[in-house]
Amino acid sequence: MFICMLSQAIDRGENLTVLVDKTETLRSQAQDFKNKGTQMRRKLWYQNMKIKLVVFGILLLLILVIWLSICQGFDCTN
Fold first, then answer.
1. Per residue in 20-38, pLDDT tens?
2. Domain-by-domain residue ranges, the chain?
């Protein structure tokens, strides 16, 4: 009887060790996922910002072309 209980306690200790290892692995994977998510968010933010800057530049160029065609130059006082 005592040997059976001792065996169960040892098995339970081994199971706890396996559970602790799995928990540590899961925590590590969660941290990696969080870091990759942050990297992806930054990458997409920069990509979005580049697109916005290109569109803004094209709009400024279009406004400049319209301004120059209406005023026949930079002096629009005539």
1. 889 999 999 999 999 999 9
2. 36-72
Q: CA 53 from chain center: how many Å?
A: 21
Q: Between the CA of residue 5 and those of 11, 19, 75, what are the distances in Å?
A: 10, 21, 98
What is the Cα–Cα distance from 27 to 36, expressed in whole angstroms? 14
Q: Among residues 17, 36, 39, 38, which one has the least CA distance to residue 28?
A: 36
| CA separation for the pair 49, 27 (Å, rounded) | 33
| Residue range 8-15: mean pLDDT, rounded | 68
Q: What percent of the chain has pLDDT over 90?
A: 58
